[in-house]
Amino acid sequence: MSLAEPLYLVFLAVAVLGVRFAGNRVPRALVLVPLSLVFYATWNPLALLPLLVTAAVDFNVSRALGRTERPALRHALVATSVVVDLGLLSAFKYSGLLARAAAPLLGRAADAAWPPFTLVLAAGISFYTFQSLGCVLDVYRRDEEPPARFLDYLAFVSFFPTLLAGPITRAGTFFPQAVRPLAPLTDADGSRALFRIGLGLAKKVLIADVLAVNLVDRVFEVPGLFTSAEAGLAVYGYAIQIWADFSGYSDIALGSALLLGFRLKENFDSPYRAADLAEFWRRWHISLSTWLRDYLFFSLPGNRRGGAAPYANLVITFVLGGLWHGTTWAFAGWGLIHGAGLAVQRLFESRRPRGPLPRSPWRRALGILVTFHVVSFAWILFRCESGAAALSFLRVLFAGTWGIGNVPYAAVAALLLGLAAHFVPPTWHPAAESRFAGLPSAAQAGLVLAVLAAIRLSAGASVAPFVYFRF
């Protein structure tokens, strides 16, 4: 079940009614856990196995960490979670790569039927693994108390609005709200939640899917049939598509969580308004970038000693972040571009003893333009997913051929709409939210249903899955 399907809104309505009807008479987790497990089972019931193992191991490790002060035992406990969590992640996400790597050693390199097995699709495993492991690390560092009950912990790991593609929620955000008495759903919060869900669906349908179907997929799949200008528009189109698709999912997830009584942190903040790469990562996929910073970058040795170590650690962090998305040289190259760019930016800023220079409007505009093009260029590797495909695309991109006759007007309109959405005045979003909240309930529901009708008309028999479901 995808968050963009009309069936999801029916499921969400049932979930909200169940949570609100139960109120404070029963623990909220007692309602959320069965709903979340059913939701996840609609993808594949076998995918519940690694989720349940991850939750059980990390809950017991967290509890054990809270009962011991012995350094050696604490190290062994946290190592257990790391090995189990990353082992399951590698097995279910990278089994094909591992099998291909083992084929020559087993004398099966020429066997087209190898590997003889395919592990079950475990959608969202990257997200709930990082979420659960982050809780263990917080308890290990004594930043959080161990979870009190397994049911609450399972609700945290399996929370269905964020289960498939985040945002990666911290224990310190989820647990205090989970154990707090459920407050009544106010008209303001209900309207805000519906607005976010409708906004997310509109981003998905009116921008992301239009660009994917009419421009991006066509050009990236067979670049040789298109001109350099069309390839360039496809690069811009993919930059806007992946933002609209992923931030649209986050909007739906945040709105759904609010209806269930949880206020989660924002995951996107107009990322293409960033004037440098550091600012971009403060605005893009905020839950992942902060996770990598807090649990990976700060854990690498040498950050406090100065020298070359902090710069190397930036590159290592982002290369590993690229490989988190996929185990190909293209994803590693995408991470390398960002890591090297951040290292260079940090080096230049360190040479200014008084800190970075204040940006005039034209300097900021130039910074936004350059940053957008660096990020968009890196997206080529992300979209192509293999070095060979990226090279084929780049040959077309730099061939110097012109003409955009194969680009539909709908794709150009969606591209411009996505870009314009980044530069609207900051007051527009809350103003639109307030106007939506001022509408009668029937009108609010009608607008959301209109978006759902657009999904059905544009998608035909099925709805395109969100891009980040693959990661």
Topology record:
Blueprint: H1 6-22, H2 28-41, H3 48-67, H4 71-93, H5 95-102, H6 125-140, H7 150-158, H8 160-163, H9 171-179, H10 187-221, H11 228-259, H12 277-283, H13 286-296, H14 309-325, H15 329-350, H16 361-384, H17 387-397, H18 409-421, H19 428-438, H20 441-459
Helix pairs in contact: 1-2, 2-7, 3-4, 3-6, 3-7, 4-6, 10-11, 10-18, 10-19, 10-20, 11-16, 11-18, 14-15, 15-16, 16-17
Could you explain how this protein is built, in words?
- The protein has 471 residues and is mainly α.
- The protein has two domains: 25-180, no CATH class; 188-463, no CATH class.
- It has 20 helices and no strands.
- The protein has helices spanning 6-22, 28-41, 48-67, 71-93, 95-102, 125-140, 150-158, 160-163, 171-179, 187-221, 228-259, 277-283, 286-296, 309-325, 329-350, 361-384, 387-397, 409-421, 428-438, 441-459.
- It is globular.
Condensed summary:
The chain has 471 residues and is mainly α. The protein has helices at residues 6-22, 28-41, 48-67, 71-93, 95-102, 125-140, 150-158, 160-163, 171-179, 187-221, 228-259, 277-283, 286-296, 309-325, 329-350, 361-384, 387-397, 409-421, 428-438, 441-459. The chain contains 20 helices and no strands.
Keywords:
471 residues
The helix content is 55-70%
Domains, number: 2
- Tally the helices: 20
Average the pLDDT over all residues and give the rounded result.
87
Strand content: under 5%
**Number of separate strands:** 0
Order of SSEs? HHHHHHHHHHHHHHHHHHHH
Radius of gyration: 23 Å
Global morphology: globular
End-to-end distance: 16 Å
**Largest sheet descriptor:** none
Low-confidence stretches at least 5 residues in length (pLDDT < 50)? none
Structural class: mainly alpha
